[in-house]
Amino acid sequence: MTSPVEVAWDASFLSYDFGPCHPMTPLRLDLTMRLADELGLLAGVKVTDAPLADERLLELVHDAGYVDAVKAAGAAPEDADLAHGLGTDDTPAFRGMHEASAHYVGATVQAAEHVWSGEASHAVNISGGLHHALRGAAAGFCVYNDCGVAIARLLELGAERVAYVDVDVHHGDGVEEAFYTDPRVLTISLHETGLALFPGTGWPGSSGAAGAEGTAVNVALPPGTGDAGWLRAFDAVVPPLLAEFRPQVLVSQHGADSHAADPLAHLALSVDAQQASYAALHRLAHDHCEGRWVATGGGGYEAVEVVPRAWAHLIAIAAHRPLDPATPCPEAWRAYVGELVGRPAPARMTDGASASFAPWTGGYDPADPLDQAILATRAAVFPCYGLDPQP
């Protein structure tokens, strides 16, 4: 019998709340799960809770002193320790910060454990993907690095090769840093160039420490990159590297802030291209990992038009019930959005884009900034796997 698909959802997820003016509003999670439910996507999947990650788990990637600082900030936000990145404009302190953040970690770790053991075939935690949190500091709206802890837990359980693919518009710096010296973990991040966007890192030459060469992969995309260019970059880098690395499990981060409507970044993807990338990662999990796939959310700050539709598509693909992009958004959901935020909700699950692209194998233009970015990544990493960076 096929193991069920799991989707993590717990009321505690809405407690991760930096305040009414912060872009990382829990509204995005609420609207996503309501949309998925109205579309019937939760029927037949196992909805799991979010256990609280304990200190032992958190300290797989975080310093004990930092965990103590998060607890203290959650008890007295006015005294948050700025030296640990807490209480900043990006990551304000709030009451219960430790507990809310540890629930996110617990949900992603549980997803990884269940996928590794075979209890679940795929597992999705849209609240996860907090990829900027560092060993001793919060950063970029991220308190604890749930993906990093989950990967460390997989290694602890005996995994020998774990691949992490990050399609958020921002560089997945915290996860990369956690495993930069570890040849068992391949991290791939496709993001807007650090010349234009936080956190200012993620260059092709940052490709892994001695002994782990080629296991950190960064595709730094020019501002304005749209569907065809982004999908071309993904296709030119991700599938060939996963085929060579042969991961036993795939962990992915699906920040929806690569969308053209996102207010904090400068790429120009459609929901249709985002859906195409999710479908590609699903196929790659089956091609190389016997289907073992842990998918998380991440960034995404257009909380009505973009994030709910993007992550509902993610849940649909993980549940083996991909949606026709022309599917109407349910009237009950649209009415809820109108009552809650006072503006119209999108009518359909598509932006009307084709999500087509020209494969890299058809040749490249050395004068094109996008192709230059792709070639820089391939040149930095592909020789480590005996692959030719050229088409």
Automatic annotation (TrEMBL):
What InterPro entries does the record tag this protein with?
Answer: AcuC (IPR003085), HDACs (IPR000286), His_deacetylse_dom (IPR023801), His_deacetylse_dom_sf (IPR037138), Ureohydrolase_dom_sf (IPR023696)
Keywords for this entry? Answer: Acetoin catabolism
**Which pathway is recorded for this entry?**
Ketone degradation; acetoin degradation
Is DNA damage set as a keyword in this record? no
Q: Tell me where in this chain the Histone deacetylase domain is found.
A: 22-316
Family membership noted in the UniProt record: Belongs to the histone deacetylase family.
Write down what this protein is called.
Acetoin utilization protein AcuC
Per the UniProt record, the source organism is Motilibacter deserti
